[in-house]
Amino acid sequence: MGSRAGGNGIDLWSEIIAEEQEYIDQLQEQKIEVIYRRRRPQKTPPDVNSEKLESNKENRVSLAAATKRVSWNRSLSIRGRVSIAIAACVDNRPKQKQGKRKGKPPVPKGKVVQPPNFDKEKEYFQEVDAFELLEESPSPKNIGTWATGNGTDTSSIPYLSSRLEKWLISKKLNFSAAPSTTLSKLLETPAMPLETIYDNDFSAAHLKTPEKSSSKINSSLHSVHSRINAYLCSKCVPEMKSDSQMISTMLRSTDDEGFKDIEAAVKKLSLASTSTSVDHDYVDPFSSLLVVCGQTVPSTLLDVFSKYCDAERITKVGEGTYGEAFKAGNTVCKIVPIDGDLKVNGEVQKKSEELLEEVVLSKTLNLLRQHDGDAHNASTTFIETLDLKVCQGPYDNALIKAWEDWDDKNGSENDHPGEFPEKQRYVVFVLQHGGKDLESFVLSNFDEARSLLVQVTAALAVAEAAFEFEHRDLHWGNILLSRSDSTTIQFILEGKRILVRTYGLLISIIDFTLSRINTGEDILFLDLSSDPYLFKGPKGDKQAETYRKMREVTEDFWEGSFPRTNVLWLLYLVDILLLKKSFERSSKNERELRSLKKRLDKYNSAKEAIFDPFFSDLLVSCE
């Protein structure tokens, strides 16, 4: 086997042999005899060890080389053995055998091993999870204080009923107030005189419409279900005076007895929530609806109708998806069932909070009927709401007979009212009689058709200016017509008085269920995005197409102000008049209607449309 030269050209094996020969010669010169015996353990001083280490450093290279040589030769000559490697500073003493690891004791036969029990640990973590920080929870020791860290804030937390009581007192003692601030605001402040939202200086500049938010909060921020607003009636209901005096007496007698007595007094009037917890600042919408309607308990349907006519003279005059309309004397009573589990004509019944907003909206539009010298916006075209009542109980026999008579003549599409349960609730709108709806009314000539359009446009323009109003459901069933001897009707638009020719025709706009209004303190609206079926009407149907166009304009942000929706319904009315063949008109008249339709499509509000050339000769004066 040939040897391999190192990096400097020196034969490695020659060097090892030479060093070994020198070592052997030195041993012979010293004549050292090797005696084999057991070595006795000796304690070597530290200095001796250090000297040996120094000498080992000098011989480290030669020893390593010799080791390699011995290992190499033995591996070639002795097979099956392991060569012994020797290195400096390595402990080569044999290691002691480690004791075997003891295994688990065998399980006795016939016994079952029980799984580990973690009940204590589970109880501990449940206790930890149930623990509430003092900073975030009312102190259980003193329910009227809040604990923060080691300190205690002794400021008292008023009961809900005490704040509601103050609201009731303010509401019932201030008879001159128009619709008030919201119930939620009043609950946060002490009782004080209430301010009207509509005064001499009221204008559209006072109204604020929120900008569209990038994220809808539960739909609830913009949803009618998340808003329970209680407003005052513009005039006092006589029967409320006795209630007001009773509340004042209770307060005077219990003023020094704390909140508990006030709470009991409110409960007697059924106007407080049944919950007495201070953690739930909540007012029942049905109770709020009672207050707005000037009641402490619901009435019966017959009690309401009997104020206007005898039971035998009640007649049904119309119907809708959510209610029935009956004529009682010179009024029309619209009955809307609420809060029930029974479906009405295939639809879920309206909730109290929904009707609460419609009630408030109707009362707000009533304010437009004021035509005094200081009125800034005024119109009598919106139907007048004479009274509002909450009722409970079944339909009376007189109402059922009137309903069945209508069904025999016209074929009702609604369910029979006798199916309502004994405790069914209703809201009754007592309205002025506005006449027949456009669907069944027969127009005489083109002038009456023009009068219809100008009166509707002027009314929408006034409501836009006053309250950012949008009807959003102005189909031909929600426009009533009646004949009159008057030749003109007056509107006030942003301080300007406008006289409009009527040609003996008076218009009334009804049904504000889908409407949107800004009262100056709250925006009342119905979130139509929660009713997708409203936009799934047949293609080509004028009413269904108008709903879909509204959604395009609003982009499903129904709280916002989009007066363009009023223009969409004006376009719908023009289409209806073009399709209605009952009244006399010439081809020139039809061309004028089509030209109006093209121009209307460019307007963004009724305030712009009212000054269209189509209406110029109908506006008698504009001051």
TrEMBL record:
<keyword id="KW-0723">Serine/threonine-protein kinase</keyword>
<feature type="region of interest" description="Disordered">
    <location>
        <begin position="93"/>
        <end position="116"/>
    </location>
</feature>
<dbReference type="Pfam" id="PF12330">
    <property type="entry name" value="Haspin_kinase"/>
</dbReference>
<dbReference type="GO" id="GO:0005737">
    <property type="term" value="C:cytoplasm"/>
</dbReference>
<feature type="compositionally biased region" description="Basic residues">
    <location>
        <begin position="95"/>
        <end position="104"/>
    </location>
</feature>
<dbReference type="GO" id="GO:0000278">
    <property type="term" value="P:mitotic cell cycle"/>
</dbReference>
<dbReference type="GO" id="GO:0035402">
    <property type="term" value="F:histone H3T11 kinase activity"/>
</dbReference>
<feature type="region of interest" description="Disordered">
    <location>
        <begin position="38"/>
        <end position="58"/>
    </location>
</feature>
<dbReference type="InterPro" id="IPR000719">
    <property type="entry name" value="Prot_kinase_dom"/>
</dbReference>
<keyword id="KW-0547">Nucleotide-binding</keyword>
<dbReference type="GO" id="GO:0005694">
    <property type="term" value="C:chromosome"/>
</dbReference>
<dbReference type="GO" id="GO:0005634">
    <property type="term" value="C:nucleus"/>
</dbReference>
<dbReference type="GO" id="GO:0035556">
    <property type="term" value="P:intracellular signal transduction"/>
</dbReference>
<keyword id="KW-0808">Transferase</keyword>
<feature type="domain" description="Protein kinase">
    <location>
        <begin position="311"/>
        <end position="623"/>
    </location>
</feature>
<keyword id="KW-0158">Chromosome</keyword>
<dbReference type="GO" id="GO:0072354">
    <property type="term" value="F:histone H3T3 kinase activity"/>
</dbReference>
<dbReference type="InterPro" id="IPR011009">
    <property type="entry name" value="Kinase-like_dom_sf"/>
</dbReference>
<keyword id="KW-0418">Kinase</keyword>
<dbReference type="GO" id="GO:0005524">
    <property type="term" value="F:ATP binding"/>
</dbReference>
<protein>
    <recommendedName>
        <fullName>non-specific serine/threonine protein kinase</fullName>
        <ecNumber>2.7.11.1</ecNumber>
    </recommendedName>
</protein>
<keyword id="KW-0963">Cytoplasm</keyword>
<dbReference type="GO" id="GO:0043687">
    <property type="term" value="P:post-translational protein modification"/>
</dbReference>
<feature type="compositionally biased region" description="Basic and acidic residues">
    <location>
        <begin position="49"/>
        <end position="58"/>
    </location>
</feature>
<keyword id="KW-0067">ATP-binding</keyword>
<dbReference type="InterPro" id="IPR024604">
    <property type="entry name" value="GSG2_C"/>
</dbReference>
